[in-house]
Amino acid sequence: MKITVSELIVRYLERLGVEVIFGMPGAHVLPIYDQLRDSKVKSVLVKHEQGAAFMAGGYSRVSHRHGLDKIAACIATAGPGATNLVTGIANAYAERLPVLIITGETSTYIFGKGGLQESSGEGGAIDQGALFSSITRYHKLIERTDYLGQVLNQATRALFSREPGPVLLSIPYNVQKEMVEDDVLDQLHIQAAVPRQVDNCAAHGVALAQLAALIQAAKYPVIVAGYGCIKAGARDVVASLSEALRIPVASSLKAKGVVSEGGALSLGCLGVTSNGQAYRYIVEHADLVIFLGAGFNERTSYLWDKKLLAGKKVAQVDCDAGQLGKVFKADLAIHGDIREVLTALLADLAAEGASVGKPAGKPGGRLDKLDDHRENENQPLAGAAAAQHAKFHLMEAFFAGLAERFPQDALIFDDNIVFAQSFFDVSHANHYFPNSGISSLGHAIPAAIGARFFTQARSQDAPTFAILGDGGFQMCCMEIMTAVNYGIPLNIVVINNATMGLIRKNQFQLYGERYIDCDFVNPDFELLARSFGIQHHRIVAEADLDTLFASADLTGTINLIEILLDKNAFPTYLSAR
Questions:
Q1: What is the pLDDT of residues 201-245, one digit of tens each?
Q2: How buried is residue 406: exposed, middle or buried, by Cβ count under 10 Å (0-12/13-18/19+)?
Q3: Topology (CATH) of 383-564
Q4: Given 3.40.50.880, 3.90.1150.10, 3.40.50.1820, 3.40.50.970, which CATH number is that of 2-187?
């Protein structure tokens, strides 16, 4: 049976299991939009194509946390529609998110003639394929239909691969209207799921024995858990290893909550913008550092501070062979699935009669050291440290209230990260999504909206927060109207200090207080909220936070929560020079 290419593309989306496609129509994609009208794929109209890409990314990230690995999708017209996607797609590429991008193109018969919004690369037109080539796993300008089946197969393989990423299909207007046989889709080879296991752990027998020996020989081992633990679905196994052998756990920023940060064995977050507890414990006490799916990037490593690993044994487990030995030399490196490796390790230790599952006793005095360290950490602050701490009391109180009010099932998208890294104890039952990837401002609001589309479709009560500074807010606040249009409950937390905080901090610390282009005037956030038809809450004292968490509907409505902060309240960490 003959159908149009535009109908085939929509059926392809359905075959992939795409539930929502975020985007904005334009003349060059209207044939596809016309077919979406009768499809079970829900189209969501955004206010800017960058928002569509970020929404798709947020949808994908939450989908993965729920173990479903759904394909996310976005759509834009040719020319500016496509170019507006670039930042969000670059972020998805850095995060390895399976996002399918559909873009239109001018008709092939006017390639090179200067067609409106043409991006074919012909006759001096911009080359959209070249533009996306370094931020996609696969991209194709489909100029003919005779190889359409092969193209869709290549796209599918890239989306479902072990290392997925964005895929771009750009389809000229006239090609969308051509007729093809509908059995093209029968050529597709779609995997139901990507197996997490890298290889059989039996092959790691010697390495597992060596890892067990390193752990038992250490007096003060520490686990540094990275996002690879979450990606592998290994949160429970990491917690089991920690509890069984009483090993403290520090996490990377992206892995906050891999074990509950309020727990007795949590050191919190390791990273340059954190409170430093994990750093000091590792530097002062650890004799073995076990990296589990942690990349040891600039943030986590304190700009690759040599003191973190000096004089220590180092073990590393990662499913990505490219991470092994990437920035440090491990005494033992295991290429394997983290969940499988740790499960086998625990079984081997139990079989050998190691102190697995024996809560009494503190092997090697590990917890004594941890308790002593925490006792020192909790001493009252004095002098400049106390003054610095006092500047952020509202942010500390906000995150304490958030952790208490929503101990589970909350989705937190955080562009600011500095305050959460120090003040927010993420439980293993919550989902914290820092602005990682390429760390683009203007990410939190659209990403949170995309995530909420996923949870709402499953009737899940997931209180959702987008936390960002007032500078980043003004890059994406128009997407609040997308949430309003579709009835998406969302809490937008704006840190109002009328400055680009990171820039002002750097100019204070590194450039002799020579401030330029960091300060600005904000809108009246209460009036802005009123114009959107949403609730506004202004936080100037802790009593306002008490009222917020006690009486505001933070689950079923849209709230704009404005927290005032002194623009001269600078975190003490130093950025890279």
A1: 555 688 898 999 999 899 999 999 999 999 888 999 999 999 999
A2: buried
A3: Rossmann fold (3.40.50)
A4: 3.40.50.970
